[in-house]
Amino acid sequence: MTIEQGLVKEIASIVGEENCSTRAADLYTYGFDSSIHHHNPDIVVRPKSTSEVSELIRIAAREGIPVVPRGGGTGLCGAAVPIMGGMVMDLTRMNEIKKVRVNDLYCVTQAGVVYDRLNEALAPYKFFFPPTPGSGEACTIGGMVATNASGMRAVKYGASRDYVLGLEVVLADGSVIHVGTNTIKNSSGYQLERLFVGSEGTLGVITEITLRVAPKPKKAAMALAAFDRLEDAGTFVSNLISLPLIPSATELMDDICIRAVNKAVKAGLPDVQAVCMIEVDGEPEMVAKELKIVEEVARRSGAVTVQTSDDKEQMALWTSARKSVMSALSRLGDELVSVSLADDMAVPISRIPEAVVAFHRIAEENRVIVGTYGHAADGNLHTKMLLNPCSEDDWIRGEKAVGQIFDTVIALGGTVTGEHGVGMSKAPYMMKERPDAWGTMLLLKKAMDPQNILNPGKMMQWEGGIIRDLRYPCRDICDLR
Ligand SMILES: Cc1cc2nc3c(=O)[nH]c(=O)nc-3n(C[C@H](O)[C@H](O)[C@H](O)COP(=O)(O)OP(=O)(O)OC[C@H]3O[C@@H](n4cnc5c(N)ncnc54)[C@H](O)[C@@H]3O)c2cc1C
């Protein structure tokens, strides 16, 4: 679709020329998120206010132009890739934290505020917004709500959805609605704010968010437990939870991830089959007590070594080793890159040992390298496949392994995505996971966006396989669908 010059001028008159572009370099850049996919939009806009968003959507509705809202572009499944072209709406200029009211336990922020920035603003009040995604330096609050993002601390503190009290949303006809409240309790009709959580830009553009905030824990400490058997690490996590002891973070890494971070960032992790990093937080006496219990349970579950620390530097080193897994995997082999395929399944916690063993077997059978890591205590496991992106054969084997991994996860009673969302890379598998629900999602989509202009073609509208519209320069060789 080419957007004719008169229309470009009309759009530029709303956001200003400097915030509207049809330049080839901008279109190419905004065709990416952090997934394997790429597709150019026809125009990029960067609104500053809700009224600008509303005017832009009115024009898009009038002209039948697809609109893809975009936060930090850190999504891993192509949700922000404009697969049908049209308008990418970059919301990062809407970056004002409007209110911090810790006495009422909430804050109000525009959608484009970056996660870490919000927490910097909350820190002086001794409060925080806890989900802690690995992409916190770049992802936006709007993007987090739109994908129901979470992260390391979900087992204790929950996901984005658990903090959304209210939203301001621009609908597909340009009208602005307010859903939810500023209060901790609310039984006032349908909980529509929940409808937009995880909607990935397909039902409306979120412009403002009222978030519940949580008090910051006074102290944290960590344990690093090393295992000679991957399944023992999974059993350890399950043993800990059932005590009950709910850690604030539980990060599992298998031998491939350990090798990758030791090579790429000299993390000095033990050379074993799996490590588990456990964080406990709260009142200092409780932290010390829980850390001891963690150590005991780790040894009882088969840990060969357990190190503990409450030293901030040491804990930051361990955390940054875990955070570097994704990029480190891409540096493990010369021609291989780590791709986000089957990257964030969640299973019931007690099924983790079976899941990790099955992932390794599937990788071996399909001759693909799969690194497994994740926030194990909430059942959320990440796998990253190492592929040569210019080899059609690698993609074929990779896609086969993806299908088998997702079948395993569904059979274990899990979900194909615990936190990253559906977008393109997981769309057919979400429909497999939810055979009796995706029809209702389609009905909702049709009712709320009858012209199908909001992030069209994604989630339950997806057709075909996932190895297409690839971001790699050799995409002509390997577009398989
Ligand atoms: C290194 C790395 C680590 C990561 N770690 C985690 C993790 O630990 N946990 C986790 O959950 N995710 C993680 N992610 C994935 C990603 O960061 C999250 O999904 C994040 O919430 C996306 O936010 P964003 O602002 O970048 O959204 P984008 O990628 O820009 O968009 C994601 C989706 O949200 C929609 N959207 C964005 N803003 C709005 C809005 N204002 N209104 C309506 N729709 C909107 C887009 O259309 C798209 O469908 C990671 C990604 C990377 C690259």
Briefly summarize what is shown.
The chain has 17 helices and 19 strands. The chain has 481 residues and is α+β, with helices and mostly antiparallel strands.
Question: How does this model look, in words?
Answer:
This protein is α+β, with helices and mostly antiparallel strands and 481 residues long. Helix content is 35%, strand content 20%. It contains 17 helices and 19 strands. The strands form four sheets. Strands 12, 13, 14, 15, 16, 17, 18 and 19 form an eight-stranded antiparallel beta sheet that branches. A hairpin with a 4-residue loop joins strand 5 and strand 6. The longest helix has 20 residues, at 392-411. The mean pLDDT is 94. Bound molecules: flavin-adenine dinucleotide (FAD). Flavin-adenine dinucleotide binds next to strand 3, helix 5 and strand 10.
List keywords for this structure.
Uridine Diphospho-n-acetylenolpyruvylglucosamine Reductase, domain 2; Alpha-Beta Plaits; Uridine Diphospho-n-acetylenolpyruvylglucosamine Reductase, domain 3; 19 strands; globular; 17 helices; eight-stranded antiparallel beta sheet; five-stranded antiparallel beta sheet; alpha+beta; binds flavin-adenine dinucleotide; 481 residues; 20% strand; 4 domains
- Tally of individual domains: 4
Into which percent range does the helicity of residues fall? 25-40%
Beta-strand percentage?
15-25%
In the CATH hierarchy, what is the architecture of the largest domain at level 2? 2-Layer Sandwich
The residue ranges in which pLDDT falls below 50 over 5 or more consecutive positions are none
Average pLDDT value? 94
Q: Which fold name corresponds to the CATH topology of the largest domain?
A: Uridine Diphospho-n-acetylenolpyruvylglucosamine Reductase, domain 3
Number of helices: 17
**CATH class (first level) name of the largest domain:** Alpha Beta
Distance between the termini: 21 Å
Computed over alpha carbons, the radius of gyration is 22 Å
**Largest sheet: number of strands, sense, barrel closure:** 8 strands, antiparallel
Which overall shape is indicated by the principal axes computed on the Cα atoms? globular
The class by helix and strand makeup works out as alpha+beta
